[in-house]
Write a structure and sequence with these properties.
globular; disordered N terminus; Rossmann fold; single chain; three-stranded antiparallel sheet
């Protein structure tokens, strides 16, 4: 904890219902296992004495402020909240949170956080990662954390560039992206993080934007209450190496016409004049229609709790070409037992049927021999 400075090298101490889902539709929350505090907390309680060192104008500042302002609502003891990061600009996050934290190694934050979450159900464990950290060297760790449904909350800062290493293209950079490592344009087809997460059977998959604090915090509330792995992709502006990458979603003159705000149980209607809607075609994909031209019954109703991931997947593919129509909000929020619960159930059963374990006896059992 940063109340008394950092500890050793590994740990350091340092809206209103805009989005529906989360605790309402989710069968249960594992937050009940995390100790609560009797002291009222504020944003200041989650700030550290560390100088925040990101480039001036970086979207990370907005995300940090939103998280620090949101966490007091949970009423959890700060000693029982942990932020785990990998490598990248976003990975400075644990230093700036007055909770326990672990600045780990490139791409391995989900693996390290998995060990922590499964061995300590009394902790609220958050992973902070970027598009390069999570989807390049860390891609395998990410998809397996999602399919296992470990009790983790993963914040994926997506700026579509490698910022820390000074502007190379990343796994989410668009085709033809000219960078220091692709002077003639990237040849790689980019990952769609939400499609990837849904394909890996992620039980909570959402997208939000760094500059929309109200929406960001509403998504975080739902993610915090989710049972299992919650992946939140946050569009984050890198004003040094990829400035204005998400400008259509932020420009007041066009953003309402290109942003599709998803709310569970509500018809998918959008546009500055609320004159556009989504209709699902016979093939399962979505098409944009004018509200005045269709029967209201034809307009798709968002169902984040549908066990069938096909609708959520189709929504994740809607943004083609980029920013023509971009959904934000909770794409999928379904209830499934977490890996942590299932593992603990096996441990309890083994102890009940075989007695308490003895590590020393186990190591000395079986096919062993002594060399003199």
């Amino acid at each position: 904890m940063s109340d008394n400075g950092s500890t050793d090298g590994a740990t350091n101490g340092n809206g209103n219902g805009a989005v529906n889902g989360g605790a309402e539709g989710n069968g249960r929350s594992l937050l009940s296992l995390v100790p609560k505090t009797d002291v009222k907390q504020t944003l200041k309680d989650f700030k550290t004495d560390q100088e925040v060192r990101w480039c001036p104008g970086c979207g990370d500042y907005a995300i940090l402020a939103a998280v620090q302002a949101f966490l007091p609502e949970l009423g959890l003891r700060r000693e029982n909240i942990t932020f785990v990061s990998g490598i990248g600009c976003s990975s400075r996050f644990p230093y700036y949170m007055n909770t326990y934290g672990f600045h780990s190694i490139h791409g391995r934050a989900p693996a390290i956080a998995t060990g922590l979450a499964t061995s300590r159900p009394d902790l609220s464990v958050w992973v902070v990662t970027g598009d390069g950290d999570a989807l390049s060297i860390g891609g395998n760790h990410l998809i397996h954390a999602l399919r296992r449904n470990v009790n983790l909350k993963i914040l994926l800062f997506n700026n579509r560039i490698y910022g820390l290493t000074k502007g190379q293209y990343s796994p989410t950079s668009e085709l033809g992206k000219i960078t220091k490592s692709t002077p003639m344009g990237s040849l790689d087809a980019p990952f769609n993080p939400l499609s990837l997460a849904i394909g890996a059977e992620g039980t909570f998959v959402a997208r939000t934007i760094d500059s929309d604090r109200k929406h960001l915090q509403s998504v975080l509330r739902a993610a915090a209450q989710h049972r299992g792995t919650a992946l939140v992709e946050i569009y984050q502006n890198c004003n040094i190496f990829n400035d204005n990458a998400f400008e259509p979603l932020k420009d007041a003159s066009v953003r309402d016409d290109v942003t599709v705000r998803l709310e569970h149980g509500e018809p998918i209607v959008f546009g500055a004049a609320r004159d556009k809607a989504l209709r699902r075609s016979a093939s399962g994909s979505f098409e944009v229609v004018r509200v005045a031209d269709v029967d209201p019954a034809e307009i798709a109703v968002h169902d984040a709790h549908n066990p069938d991931p096909s609708m959520a997947f189709a929504l994740s593919r809607l943004d083609q070409p980029a920013f023509t129509h971009t959904p934000i909000g909770i794409f999928r929020d379904v209830d499934r037992p977490s890996y942590d619960e299932l593992m603990q159930g096996q441990l309890d059963e083994a102890a009940a049927t075989q007695g308490a374990g003895d590590l020393a006896a186990l190591l000395g059992s079986g096919d062993t021999w002594r060399i003199d």
